[in-house]
């Protein structure tokens, strides 16, 4: 399980990229994008098939971002995740959050072997979400010991 210290360090970043936002705005990556933006983070959407997402410029890959970000949230299928963690490493991004459903053993292993801090097994909205449903989910996750200590 990912340690609370690694999660706290990730959440302390002022800017992150989100790989896996959609043009239509209805995917989980878009919900993360909106929640983190609302919480005050500088958030960069990444989708190679979109010029804009939710009226914000969208970037085709991590190397195209206008500034270097310390972290990335990955919300794509596991086969794509493996490519993205390699790209993140090449771009100098050191902190990786793999949303449940995006994780793959190969991607996690790559992160560990290359000194990247990786969060797995946790939904970022338990920590960044402000909607009532996220607060309830966080309460029960804490109650049943499903969050790191």
| Mean pLDDT figure | 88
- Beta percentage is 15-25%
Q: Largest beta sheet, briefly?
A: 5 strands, parallel
Strand arrangement, largest sheet? 2-1-5-6-7
Helix content: 25-40%
Overall spatial form: globular
Residue runs with pLDDT of under 50 for 5 or more positions: 131-140
CATH class: Alpha Beta
**SSE order, one letter for each helix or strand:** HEHEEEEHEHEHH
What is the CATH architecture annotation? Answer: 3-Layer(aba) Sandwich
Termini distance?
Answer: 10 Å
CATH superfamily: NAD(P)-binding Rossmann-like Domain
State the CATH topology. Answer: Rossmann fold
Tally of helical runs: 6
Describe this structure in words.
The radius of gyration is 14 Å and the shape is globular. The chain contains 6 helices and 7 strands; from the N terminus they run H-E-H-E-E-E-E-H-E-H-E-H-H. Residues 131-140 have low confidence and may be disordered. The N and C termini lie close together (10 Å). It has 149 residues and is an alpha/beta fold. The protein has a 5-stranded parallel sheet, with helices on both faces. The chain has one domain (4-143): Rossmann fold (3-Layer(aba) Sandwich). Helix 3 (78-90) runs parallel beside helix 4 (105-113).
